[in-house]
Here is the input.
Amino acid sequence: MASATDTPPGVVLPPPITERGGVGWAYANLFSNWYNTVLTFIYAALLGVALWFGLSWIVLEADWKVIATLGGRLIIGQYNTEFACPGQNCFWRPQASLLLVSVLLGMAWAVSGDKAAKRIAIGVAAITVAFAFLPYSMDQMGLDVRLLLAANVPAVAAGWVLARRTPLGTVRWIVMLGVLFFLVILVLIGGVPGVPGLQPVSTIYWGGLMLNLLLAVTGITLSLPIGIALALGRRSSLPLVKLLCVVFIEVMRGMPLITLLFMSQVLVPLAFPQDFSTNSLFRAGIILTLFSSAYMAENIRGGLQALHPGQVEAARALGLAGWQTTVLISLPQAIRNVIPAIVGQFISLFKDTLLVYIIGMLDVVEFSRAFIQGNAEYLASARELFLFLALVFWIFTYTMSYVSRRVEVHLRVGQR
Amino acid sequence: MAASESTIDTSDMIVCRDVHKWYGNFHALRGVTTTVRKREVVVVVGPSGSGKSTFIRTINRLEEHQRGDIIVDGIELSNDVRNIDAIRRDVGMVFQSFNLFPHLTAMDNITLAPMKVRKLPARQAEEIAEQLLERVGIAEQAGKYPGQLSGGQQQRVAIARALAMQPKIMLFDEPTSALDPEMIKEVLDVMRELAESGMTMVVVSHEIGFTREVADRVLMFDHGQIIEESATEEFFDNPKEDRTKLFLSQILA
Ligand SMILES: Nc1ncnc2c1ncn2[C@@H]1O[C@H](COP(=O)(O)OP(=O)(O)O)[C@@H](O)[C@H]1O
Ligand SMILES: [Mg+2]
Here is the structure.
């Protein structure tokens, strides 16, 4: 800081070098003193070595054939095998499901006004259309498969037009359509007895990334409302409600997910009819959802706890009823404040879906492991395959945290 | 004072008889008796912790009293939820820390209660809100969020929010003590205009100029009791209690 006598009034001084451009940045952050300079060089050397070996392995040594061999099976597992879908080609059913998702993405793009929705919609369209026309696809995939992949582009466009040109272009409608489409997807993939072309496919054959995504979407959409209910229950003034919620939350959080999945064989039949209880997919969905709800409840309770008590007082002083205060004032603020924690829970739920191998389901990771173990010629390719899977998971989780950051940016307008 | 006994004049908006309030073991209000008449402006003063906030918060039942009677606009405050809701509709409150809803725009802050409690259609609630924003002098800020407004603007939105319920009584708990000096005046101007319009007001405030000009009566609190209560001029020019004299000398200094 210059004192008043140094700087005559009205004089604007240029900023110091540390505030200017790339050179200033490097000076301030990398070379500001001798040990920072030494550290910078050490890190640069380590990074260089890692990149050198990493890249040369990826380009020269790695054999990515295993991924091409597995191809669509990574996405649907055994779904389209002869056992699952005898005498028919069922590949179009997951593909049609993806088209519905693309329609929703197109609608979200049209409505949200944020670049995140646009990027994701365009990203999905671009990736699918790229796969439809890759040289590899040309000789591996049938024309029908490639056309259905490429159809994601018009699907996104259709969603966009639908949202712009019809009254469906509101958040409320997109949410309702989302729920509707989700049910349609379950029917599409599960099939309907007696309908030609939609013959039932037992859930034991649902697998691959599709299984991870179905479980994650179910868990995410259900665990948020259940978590909110549990959080409110835990703060309830009714002792019995409070006790039940506390016990549920603490039991769920106190047990490892793997144990719960094991025990689901015993636990789920207690509350659900026999037909459902023996269905692994149903059990996995229930356990993942409840497990995640318990954490969600604590996140939301944290958000409620952090609210200024004046908010509730002001609402009550205006004559709002208790439940109106909760729904209109407390919850919206509490949820906004804990979005990072909520999305963190979504991400961890998504990653936890691969634990369903515990109850014998072939999610994408378990399917890959089984494939490698059963095909000796690919044993050496495990590294490539799992590296690829790690990248796929990362893309999904990173997209989630990207969306959450964009949502926060928008909501922050009202917070400052 | 007027009617502390059995007769309740219809022009008595707030009647408190021997009101006691405990926080756990702590005796916060120790027998408060007073009456506020229609169109009256009463200012409450007293040292910090003397029970001023507790007193005005019992009037709309943000705090429950344990002994004595409080009758607001003819309705006795009891555990009957319907009575409490009815009273809260008729009593507006303005807080020291504004307590605007940060996730709603100024407009939505104001229209929320009329729409959800009085069930007014959105259009009508918005018209009322626009008029009120005009009245408190910030019509152009309707679309902003509280975090984008200055303290003085926020407090004026809070006043408009309370007025939107068309209350018969307004309670103010130190409405200007969280404000920078240059913003105090804009809030006091709004309150002055409100008083002139005939609103019944109970104001906790140490703004002497405002009090002298607007208040009909001043209540002096100490240790949970009203130790002195008199017409404004009398209170400032001729205080009776030593505690009041000491207090006045401190805040006038
Ligand atoms: N929620 C509460 N729990 C316990 N004590 C309280 C609570 N609110 C206020 N008090 C106590 O009651 C007394 C009166 O408080 P208050 O009415 O806020 O005083 P004032 O507004 O005159 O400064 C203080 O001693 C304060 O510590
Ligand atoms: Mg106070």
